[in-house]
């Protein structure tokens, strides 16, 4: 079978970085057409730089990296240096990228790429705020029918929120964008905090990355060393949650995950619950299902997959 074509829309971020490494290590299953960056964890200039640092770490300077929206549709940008550090990739010491950004704004690249490929053949993997995708859908409504699916890290139901008591970071940063995406009619798979908080890098799992002894394995271990202090302090958890790699792992081995087809709406009006993913998990409304909302992951299977793929570098 030929590999699935994907575009990774991202705001690296250590966990975004691991997701990119996982995708680029899986060429038999995934063909990465482009990486499009967005402002989120850190401002756009840094997410665009970090995406290229990771492509170089992966030895994949052939992957086009395009910069996109530098702010949410209707709000001021909120960033997460308190989690990811000043650079967004704090932890390892990695060289500044030599590869340039590719020409073309992320929004144009999304539109052009979707129009250039057969309808239903390109999957969008979104690892950050949904600004680029929403602006593309707004500007070129015809692409909605061309996207195979959007597989996103975002939202929460049982875990509720990580940036406010009721909102997950990626949705909270640009709730208007999330609203557009969830109303688009495009098939959506959601990897919310409910599942990503189960993909925890325990000391043992991080030792397995480090033991690979390669620049990529050591960098992932060092990123996790940095990233985990936040979650350990905040949640008293056993290690850092690898949020964004769950998106790529779902594409590679969907059987590791389970969830339900449900309706998800985005709160954009309330100050108190702004950015909440109102997920009808218990199907108490008759609102039409618009997403496959994942709840569980086989964490050991996930880390076996990830470690094996990282060992390919
Ligand atoms: C999400 O927010 C960012 O901090 C992570 O990269 C992830 O995409 C988790 O809420
Ligand atoms: Ca991210």
General description of the model:
The chain has 313 residues and is of the alpha/beta class. The chain has a single domain, classed as Ribonucleoside hydrolase-like (Inosine-uridine Nucleoside N-ribohydrolase, Chain A). The chain contains 12 helices and 12 strands. The chain has helices at 14-24, 44-57, 81-84, 106-116, 131-139, 169-173, 175-182, 193-196, 203-210, 215-235, 245-252, 299-310, and strands at 4-10, 30-37, 65-66, 122-126, 147-153, 188-191, 200-201, 240-241, 257-262, 264-266, 277-279, 291-297. Strands 3-2-1-4-5-6-12-9 form an 8-stranded mixed sheet, with helices on both faces. It has a two-stranded antiparallel ribbon with strand order 7-8. Helix 5 (131-139) crosses helix 7 (175-182). The longest helix is centred in the C-terminal third of the chain and has 21 residues, at 215-235. The site of calcium ion (CA) has 7 residues, from loops.
Examine the coordinates and then state which fold CATH places here, giving the name of the CATH topology.
Inosine-uridine Nucleoside N-ribohydrolase, Chain A
Percent of residues in beta strands: 15-25%
Number of helices: 12
The Rg value, from CA coordinates, equals: 18 Å
Ions, cofactors and other bound molecules? beta-D-ribofuranose, calcium ion
Question: Biggest β-sheet: count, sense, barrel?
Answer: 8 strands, mixed
In the sheet with the most strands, the strands line up as 3-2-1-4-5-6-12-9
